[in-house]
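User: I'm curious whether this sequence folds into something compact or stays loose and floppy. Could you predict its structure so I can see for myself?
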Amino acid sequence: MSKTSALIQIKASLGPRSQNHPMNIPLGKATGPLRLRAAWDAILAVWTLLWCALVIGATLPIVAVARLSDGQGDRRHAAGRWIRRGAALMMRGSPLWRLRVEGELPRDGRRRVVVANHRSMMDVLVLSVLFADADWKTRWLAKAELFKIPWVGWMLRLSRDIPVRRADRSSRSRAAVRAEAALGAGLSLVVFPEGTRSRNGQLRSFESGGFRLAIGDAAPVLPIALRGTEACLDRARGWWPRRADVEVTILPEIETAGREDAGLLATEVADRLATALHRPCVQAGERPLPKLDRAAIEAAVASGRRLLVQGAMGIMASDGLPGKIARVKSEKFVPVGTISGVAKPVSMVVQQIERSRREAPNGYVGLNLMAAVNRSDFEAVARASLDVGVSFVVQGAGISREIIRWCRERKTPFVGIVSSGRLAAMYERWGADFLVAEGREAGGHLGDPDASLDRLLREVREASSLPVVAAGGLADGAAIGRALAAGAAGVQLATRFIVSSDCEVHPNFKRMHMGKTDADVVTITSTVKGMRARAIRNAFTERLAAGEAFPPKDKAPYYGPGGLRGRRKACDDCLAESICTSRESGHRQSFCISDALLRAAVDGDLDRGLFYTGQSVTGIREHSIEELKSVAEIVRELEEELSAWQCSAAAAEWNEPPRATPSESANATV
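Assistant: Here's the prediction. I'll summarize afterward.
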């Protein structure tokens, strides 16, 4: 049994602990038994500080002697080995910290580039436990500021770790030379590609320097995901130790032989880390998002409630809404959130799923995917989302049968967006759980510009027995009531929820949806297979109608220097091959849809942005940002309007004169 495995078994007997454990309550705020526990924690914290000081004091002279015995040369690592052992002792000696490790470090002696996310100074201690047990020879690439800290800086210098100032090009060049020499000498390189600690647990953008070194040396990249290290120290109380569970996931390594694109490699590693960082939440006992399958929908309908689905809109236009929608309590509706997975890195999608899980742990939150996007993006986002866990996956803008198979393998409900009865019947044969019938009144891409929602809903219900959600042009309780009366199991609203105080889209995007009339809504020809799409009239749509072309621009302001999944050119190939009409024409025609949508949602560019919208925009009543309601208030408003419509419909039916029977009609004629 390894030392790490033994440590895990010993500390597992101490019981579950977390930063929210009662024993983490400050002594001054505790009462009764909790006060005794807090006092005991304070004693253990003092012991931890004394122990760490003792280990540092004892290790420093040993490291100094080892450094002298090392002499010169990049192969020398005795000082570094003693530093890792000392750091491992500090981690092991504290009764406040519990470590759980999933996976094992390779022991074949090959040098590697180890890449880990960065949340705390404790990351160094945790990784040192792994390297000390496996007796790895390592060099660390660390920011130069750490080398100025007493004790810590001395240790780093003695172990020949490599300082780097990210803002200094000459410093980066010197660090790269030393790192290449270390790899060439057979030592593994440890890198935190975020450059600095994440303050909120979200992965920061990855620098590509370490990945270039790995490709240049053909060294495998070993990703390691760290969770819980940020809870080990209470920085608000002067780095005071506190109880915490630390989880380490050693992921499969990635071979770099034959690879050339460091940016793409960095994105791939970030995607893997993002998925691994959030997957343990469910494995550790937290409840995953519930599945919105056919049985759940039929049970809701039987209870008298209907689905109220927030439609995913554009690129980053509906961000921030899914969890807030899903947590709303309603008597008439089952609120459902939907995350847009279009033109986003996997790390961003996974973080949004995790955020929704925190905001609505018992709510339904699904993922929307366009089948027309780049195949690698489609598969990466789909598989990562299924791994992390969503309530359902809904597919539009094309057809991919593979996603249905992936959903079936992961026991996740699949939903198809349909524009005809034929497509509805096909999805039912393929195993869909429910359908979204999207009429011509919807925003964005239109499957059939001639199919009104009323007609489409009848056609789909005749062709399929699956529950159907009506979408397109719905903004108030009366419109919802008519759709439900036509047999829909629920409704989907996108535009109405965009114009809310909870939506995180640019304020100008919301302003563009206020005070509009039918004349302000236009249908354009999209670059996605030349499909028709509904948008708000502005200078961009007018210039587009006049035949002006809009070639792609640099998207670094939106995705960072690494680009979308490592693609850093102006055209990031967001759509599948032969799908983008702009790319097919060499960008001499049409426009870059990613540019236009990002400018609208992120920049709020009123002249050059593309503002997709549904026909229901003409029913938006708010006229200023100050008037906007929260999603909870909008749901209550829709409930009241639906109740009023149902009452008026019942009254109209009650007051309608009875129809004459055939015999009565005959007698009347005589």
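Summary: The first strand starts at residue 97 and ends at 102. The chain has three domains: 3-283, 294-513+626-650, 520-617.
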